[in-house]
Design brief:
Rossmann fold, 8 helices, Glyco_tran_10_C, GT10-like_C_sf
Length: 318
């Protein structure tokens, strides 16, 4: 069987230069899944995935000096990046949440994508095709390891891997909850990049596995929860590490995962802190959810996996 090659371009810095992007999500570790092979930098792919790609926008004259300058440079020829792939075989997937501060950018990206792409989707109600994000994860383990492993030894109660990003209201609310949680005295291990100096961070991780696998529980706090589509790798990473996620996010997770495979954090306030204290005091909830976690892991690995989504999409053309 001939494999359809999937190329990729992205707005994420340096991502498309990684020849092995997503290969760890395939059983043979070479990006092959069913009828496809993901090769991000393929020069002549059969399909092209535009993954969180930001279309260039014309800059307007904003300062007094700009008024005396020549007309802005013309926008780059975006078609030159499509590697001669036909429109109906170009897939646009936007994966960032529709935060108030960036909604206009997301709408512009969808508008531009429809000019060039046969399929345009994202976790937004205003996307041309509103849909869940196919799953990617950030563990260094191979697919076979994740698929076959029993639960790793759990030696600690709870972890949280997050960042110090504060550029939106939602990010700032999450940081305030972090401050309140630390002040509560509830024991948990904090990891992440660019966290505030006042936090008790244990540092940044190269592999999220080490900040999840030893723990019974993981705080999985989304940046956005206000529609029926958005759910991110925060949940997938926790479950694949055999954690029971204490999840704060929208209803999408309930539609994708089996009941009991994660817990719902009721709110990011004193009520939420009391809930975390009660749950993490013992590993009882983890033991009760162990079977549901195992089921959820198989759904993530085999059904929600972005490679599986791409395989099913390309099968329509065969």
């Amino acid at each position: 069987m001939n494999l359809a090659t999937i190329g990729m371009i992205s707005g994420y810095s340096g991502l498309e230069k990684k020849a092995d992007w997503l290969w760890q999500q395939a059983p043979d570790e070479s990006g092959v899944w069913g009828n496809i092979q993901i090769r991000a930098n393929a020069t002549k792919p059969d399909f092209l995935l535009m993954y969180q790609f930001d279309f260039p926008q014309q800059q307007t004259n904003k300062t007094w000096l700009d008024r005396f300058r020549k007309s802005p440079k013309p926008l780059p020829d975006i078609k030159s990046r499509f590697r001669s792939v036909n429109k109906d075989r170009i897939i646009y997937l936007l994966r960032e949440p529709p935060l108030e501060e960036v909604v206009d950018i997301a709408k512009y990206n969808y508008q531009e994508a429809e000019k060039y792409c046969g399929y345009v989707s994202g976790p937004d109600d205003f996307a041309p095709v509103p849909d869940y994000m196919p799953a990617i994860w950030y563990h260094g383990n191979s697919f076979r390891e994740l698929n076959e492993m029993p639960p790793p030894k759990k030696v600690a109660s709870c972890s949280w891997i997050t960042s110090g990003i504060n550029r939106t209201l939602n990010h700032r609310q999450r940081l305030e909850f972090l401050r309140s949680l630390e002040q509560s005295g509830i024991p948990f291990s904090l990891y992440g990049r660019n966290l505030p100096l006042w936090s008790n961070s244990l540092g940044e991780l190269n592999n999220k596995w080490y900040g999840m696998a030893p723990y019974y529980y993981n705080l999985s706090i989304e940046n956005y929860k206000d529609n029926d589509w958005y759910v991110s790798e925060k949940l997938w990473d926790a479950l694949l590490a055999w954690c029971l996620p204490i999840y704060y996010g929208g209803p999408a997770a309930d539609k994708l995962l089996p009941p009991g495979s994660f817990l719902r954090l009721p709110s990011m306030d004193e009520k939420g802190i009391a809930y975390i204290k009660e749950v993490t005091a013992t590993p009882d909830a983890w033991y009760e959810a162990k079977g549901a976690i195992a089921e959820a892991r198989q759904i993530i690995l085999h059904k929600l996996n972005l490679l599986n989504w791409l395989s099913e999409f390309t099968a329509k053309f065969q």
